[in-house]
Amino acid sequence: MKKKIFLRGLQGAPLGLAISTLISIIISYAVGDGRYYAVVPELSAVCGSEIYAVILQALCSLLYGATWGSASVIWELERWSLLRQSVTHLAICSLATFPIAYLMRWMAHSAAGVAGYFATFLGIYAIIWAAQYFAIKRRLQQINRRMQEHP
Fold it and tell me: What CA–CA distances, in Å, run from 30 to 23, 37, 53, 130?
């Protein structure tokens, strides 16, 4: 199990970096002034330069992706209920995501910023969870129908 967690983390790390880079490209495009915004300007100011901010964000994105990749093993624990899997996965991912989001200045450093962050995070998590749940449920129904058709 430890080996699987480690390997999933290795797979998730570059995915986290890729997603972070894709988000910065989308944000830069949405701003629409022709510039590329690799990091939040506040992070550059805190780090002392844009390159140090980019390096820090890249390292944090790798860690972020590794955590989510490693946590995916939770869904394979068949002896756990779906509720236990969901709550554990949510707890691990949110505990890893929040400090990184706060450090990277992806949210305002205020009570409203933290509340908005968690509302957004939980909303996105719930949508993805529900989509996965219903996709798996539909697939299981198809398998059950095929098994009944061909006993």
Answer: 10, 10, 21, 28
